[in-house]
Amino acid sequence: MAQQQATSKIFLWIVAVGFFMQTLDSTIVNTALPAMARSLGESPLSMQAVVISYSLTMAMLIPASGWVADRFGTRQVFMAAIILFVIGSVACAMSRTLTELVIARIVQGAGGAMLLPVGRLAVLRTVSRAEFLPAMSFVAVPGLIGPLIGPTLGGWLVQVASWHWIFLINVPVGIIGCVLTYFHLPDSRSTSLARFDMVGYLMLSLGMVALSFSLDGLAGLGMEHATVLLLLVFSMALIIAYGLHAQRRPDPLFPLYLFKIHTYSVGLLGNLFARIGSGAMPFLIPLLLQVNLGYSPIQAGLMMLPVAAAGMMAKRITTPLIQREGYRRVLVGNTLILGVLIASFALVSPEQPLWIRLIQLALFGAVNSLQFTAMNTITLRDLDSDGAGSGNSLFSMVQMLAMSLGVTIAGALLTTFIGLLDHDDPTKTLPAFHATFFCIGLITCASAWIFWQLAPDIRGGKTHDDPADVS
């Protein structure tokens, strides 16, 4: 019995460390982008592809992760994911151009996309129902710590060593993880494997990529207007085509009946648009601090700690607040406050006292955390057991897509405003940052209308932790 408990604990540690690696690399690069740009001979304001390529790849591959694990077994797939993640990390560290770095991040994202869903599936199939909630809580903690320490750790590594080490630190962790996975991770797979909806998967994946490229086309990629318009129409056509495809297929990738669940459809759309602002901020703030305000990488990383700390503290009040006020009132009001707080960064200046900046960051962290927790809960609360798997997979995909779109839109707006203001010197782009924060704030405020569609009497529900709460 003691040996079985020890093996179970090691198994949970394996899944937790995999979760930690994946969430850490979602945020650790943000404070290192200016240093990467100098090393690669690029402008620090044109490095958004490093972040977008990782999160967009994860969004594309998450829907296939469950089927792949059922087909090849959780142990093999989880070990392959770690190996792919480590290979991508080494390739990132060895990159000599921005193109090489983006390709390496795609490889890294392909491994990261499998770590959390396959690890969660392994826990679900191995742990008893009585032990499932404590087990998942244990696994979730490292995932919350990753974004908490990511920006500060990234800034510290850049300052004491070089940006290459933010990727190389994954190598020893990955090697140990592979060895432990081989000996301790149960190898479970489905006995009745359904046929994978490859056509639907390709429609959604290509649609997401085309949409991201169209949004970044004019500013980041330098595409012609006609090419951008073509990509945008192509992405919309693919998404609509998937809807028609899913109506005809008996076992679609994501069944359309999920959207008949009102709280799920509202929560999913709300997550997609409200997370654009939240996804843009971890990219914009470290850039602003280093490029325009003269912060060092470690100082910029430390400035993100109030965001994380306030976000963790805000979790205590979220459930009582929702039970008292209801989801609609909380989400509509909080979304508007979040949008105003994002827009308030348009007032940042070199003359601003440090204590005001710290309060501003802490308030953003608290409101952002409350927003994520409320959105997660309303989205998943009414899913039944039949729709839990595909519904949660679609929700995870939308979360990663929104993070990618947030950075894409922020980068496109920043590049556009820099061009309008005709500033070649990155250190004189503070007005462009101000305009970008203001526009991102407006987008966030506008998404409050989606949450207004909720019934006013919906209350309660279990809180769902999200590692992005503290990013």
Outline the structure in words:
This protein has helices at 2-27, 33-40, 48-72, 74-94, 98-126, 129-160, 165-168, 170-184, 198-217, 225-248, 262-292, 297-303, 305-325, 327-344, 354-380, 385-421, 430-446, 448-451. By secondary structure, the chain is an all-alpha fold. The protein folds into three domains: 1-191, Growth Hormone, Chain: A (Up-down Bundle), CATH 1.20.1250; 197-252; 257-471, MFS general substrate transporter like domains (Growth Hormone, Chain: A), CATH 1.20.1250.20. The protein starts with a helix and ends in a 20-residue tail after the last helix.
Structural class per helix/strand content? mainly alpha
So how many helices? 18
Low-confidence stretches: 1-6
**Biggest beta-sheet profile:** none
Overall, the morphology is: globular
What helical percentage do the residues reach? over 70%
- C-alpha Rg (nearest Å): 21 Å
**Range of strand content:** under 5%
- How would you describe the oligomerization state of the chains in this entry? single chain
Number of strands: 0
Count the domains.
3
Instruction: Give the ordered list of helices and strands.
Output: HHHHHHHHHHHHHHHHHH
Query: What is the CATH H-level superfamily of the largest domain?
Result: MFS general substrate transporter like domains
What is the level-2 CATH architecture name of the largest domain? Answer: Up-down Bundle
Mean pLDDT: 83
N- to C-terminal separation?
Answer: 39 Å
Organism: Phreatobacter stygius
Membrane topology: Multi-pass membrane protein
GO molecular function: transmembrane transporter activity
Transmembrane segments: 12-33, 45-65, 77-96, 102-123, 135-157, 163-184, 196-215, 227-245, 266-289, 295-314, 326-348, 354-373, 394-420, 432-452
